[in-house]
């Protein structure tokens, strides 16, 4: 918790990919600890108490000048307000929060992101691409995600895209790769995205070692630093806080049927 800081940042750039998807580049006004893969920040772009709480987001990229990119999907009031931020505006952040992915033990790292769940996966890719073979797999619904899938974020990355409707990349979900035997022994899997996709990773257990599947989970958050117990999830060891014990968990330790 010692490295978690409250700080202000300036919005350097906003890039819209669609009505509901955009990226925000923010430059912290002070020196902060660089996040590790899997860590996240709480972000607030409004004054006052409505909405009350900061919203959690995982950075997608960190730049040499200290700026951070966040990929944000508009789902409710907080993200709507953040979308209205203009370049030059000031935002408040807290972080870096949470644990992070441990150094991979597998021979190849397979990073799976469902929709905006790709953010911490791209961040992880950048951290590990020089250390071992890394493959990035993105699953999107299809129509409306074209501009995002073609964006600079993915330039020069070993990326494979799946879409539900087959309009972008291959038809299907990232889990299609397990069915086709394209992922196997020696691979380590990290994933972030919709809960259904993460739960279905259980099908990967026959293909790769159970203790080499990690997931980054989401939960509604209040304090973001482990104090309020507002973000607990059920695990084999009892309730665990997504903000402080997670967001990264071994797939096998999560009690998926109770989520
Ligand atoms: C560790 C972590 C990292 C995240 N990273 C990203 C990211 O990189 N990009 C991104 O777009 N989003 C990310 N999220 C999700 C994001 O925080 C929520 O979408 C956001 O807080 C919603 O705020 P809102 O005020 O717009 O919506 P609200 O008005 O609070 O809620 C609108 C709807 O979204 C649901 N919802 C809200 N928050 C969550 C949540 N945390 N999990 C599941 N459902 C939720 C609500 O149940 C409701 O149906 C992350 C969440 C966590 C916990
Ligand atoms: S948000 Fe307070 S304990 Fe996790």
Kindly report how far apart the N and C termini lie.
26 Å
Mean pLDDT: 93
The set of bound ligands, ions and cofactors reads: flavin-adenine dinucleotide, FE2/S2 (inorganic) cluster
CATH-assigned fold name of the largest domain: Rossmann fold
Shape: globular
Oligomer: single chain
Give a short account of the largest sheet. 7 strands, antiparallel
> What is the helix/strand order?
EEEEEEHEEHEHEEHEHEEEE
Number of helices: 5
Q: What's the Cα radius of gyration?
A: 18 Å
Task: Name the descriptors.
seven-stranded antiparallel beta sheet, Elongation Factor Tu (Ef-tu), domain 3, seven-stranded mixed beta sheet, 12% helix, 2 domains, binds FE2/S2 (inorganic) cluster, binds flavin-adenine dinucleotide, 259 residues
Explain this structure to me?
With 259 residues, this protein is mainly beta. It folds into two domains: 5-97, Elongation Factor Tu (Ef-tu), domain 3 (Beta Barrel); 108-216, 3-Layer(aba) Sandwich (Rossmann fold). It has five helices and 16 strands. Strands 4-3-7-1-2-6-5 form a seven-stranded antiparallel beta sheet. β8 (108-114), α2 and β9 (134-140) form a beta-alpha-beta unit. The longest helix has 10 residues, at 119-128. The relative contact order is 0.15. The model has no long low-confidence stretch (mean pLDDT 93). The protein binds flavin-adenine dinucleotide and FE2/S2 (inorganic) cluster. Flavin-adenine dinucleotide is lined by residues 40, 51, 55-58, 71-73, 75-79, 116, 119, 218-221, 242, 247. FE2/S2 (inorganic) cluster binds next to loops.
């Amino acid at each position: 918790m010692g490295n978690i800081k409250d700080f202000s940042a300036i919005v350097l750039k906003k890039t819209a990919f669609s009505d509901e998807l955009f990226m925000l580049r923010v430059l912290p006004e002070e020196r902060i600890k660089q996040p590790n893969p899997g860590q996240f920040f709480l972000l607030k772009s409004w004054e006052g108490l409505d909405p009350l709480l900061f919203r959690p987001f995982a950075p997608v990229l960190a730049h040499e000048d200290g700026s951070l990119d966040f990929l944000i999907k508009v789902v409710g009031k907080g993200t709507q307000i953040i979308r209205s931020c203009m370049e030059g505006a000031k935002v408040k952040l807290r972080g870096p929060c949470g644990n992070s992915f441990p150094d991979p033990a597998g021979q190849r790292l397979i990073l799976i992101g469902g929709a905006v769940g790709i953010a911490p996966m791209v961040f992880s890719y950048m951290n590990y691409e020089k250390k071992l073979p890394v493959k990035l797999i993105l699953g999107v619904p299809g129509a409306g995600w074209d501009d995002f899938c073609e964006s600079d974020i993915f330039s020069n990355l070993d990326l494979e895209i799946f879409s539900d409707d087959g309009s972008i990349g291959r038809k299907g979900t990232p889990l299609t790769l397990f069915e086709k035997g394209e992922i196997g022994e020696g691979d380590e899997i990290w994933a972030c995205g919709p809960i259904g996709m993460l739960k279905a990773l259980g099908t990967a257990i026959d293909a790769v070692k159970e203790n080499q599947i990690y997931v980054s989970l989401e939960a509604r958050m209040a304090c973001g630093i482990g104090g309020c117990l507002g973000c607990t999830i059920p695990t084999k060891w009892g309730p665990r806080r997504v903000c402080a014990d997670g967001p990264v968990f071994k797939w096998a330790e999560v009690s998926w049927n109770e989520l």
